[in-house]
Amino acid sequence: MASLEQILANRANSQFSTGPVTEEGKLHVAGNAISHGATSRQTVLPWESKEAFEALHDSLVEGYNPQGEQEHTLTHLVAVTGWRYQRLLGIEAAFMASVAPAGTEHLAGPEQIVFDLFLDPVGQKRLGLVLRYVANASREWRYALAELRKVQKQRQSSGATTQGYAENSAGDVDEPECETNPRETSYLSRTQRRANDRADRKAERRARRDTPGIGFVSQSQPGTSKNQFDQAA
Predict the structure, then answer these.
(1) Helix (H, G, I), strand (E, B), or coil: what is residue 8?
(2) Mean of the pLDDT values across residues 202-231?
(3) Integer Cα distance of 89 and 106 in angstroms
């Protein structure tokens, strides 16, 4: 167990600790940042702003207006992968700044820093790791965004097709009704006219049978027939 003097001495020494000063030490620290930030599957890391992530998520929901569980899941995935992509871009910038030669920040641009890293075997490995993480994060974000847009396009296309089918179906139902009703009306009218004609002819025959015609002489009642003839004349 450390004594009180050792504890106080460690605290005093820690006040003078300014981090690594050698190029190898800087690369090692940069690697720690990568391993803790780039590979973490936690959405919001302790040093990040949860409010900023929620604002990003809300803006995506408002912009894409997801419908259904699948679109909501993809919208959340776009927010998560986009947040992680921004984090990796920040790590890349921090890595480049950490390996820049001390006192030459105003002279060494990004291209010069990368060139110097390629001359150093350790720097090449660290830089390749950073660039690979950034590329993977970019690919995940773009894939999630493309999937969300594809699903929404399919939904919108399906909705338009369904609406068009319903309109066409309604038109198909109305059209035969307009064509069939006149024929049915015409057919019933002809039938009714024929029935009326048959009824008229039948009534006429009955009237002729029951009422003797003018000039008809009955053998059983000659006088009556003659009187009728004279009356008619």
Answers:
(1) helix
(2) 52
(3) 21
- Three-state DSSP string of 130-170: HHHHHHHHHHHHHHHHHHHHHHHHHHHHHHHHHHHHHHHHH
What percent of the chain has pLDDT above 90?
A: 29
In three-state secondary structure terms, 120 is coil
215-228: buried (b, 16+ CB within 10 Å) or exposed (e) per residue?
Answer: eeeeeeeeeebeeb
Identify the DSSP state of 101. Answer: P
Q: Which token pair is 163?
A: 């609406």
Domain ranges in the chain? 18-40+48-156
Instruction: Say how far apart CA 5 and CA 232 lie, in whole Å.
Output: 160
pLDDT tens digits for 7-49?
556 655 555 555 555 655 555 554 554 455 566 667 888 889 9
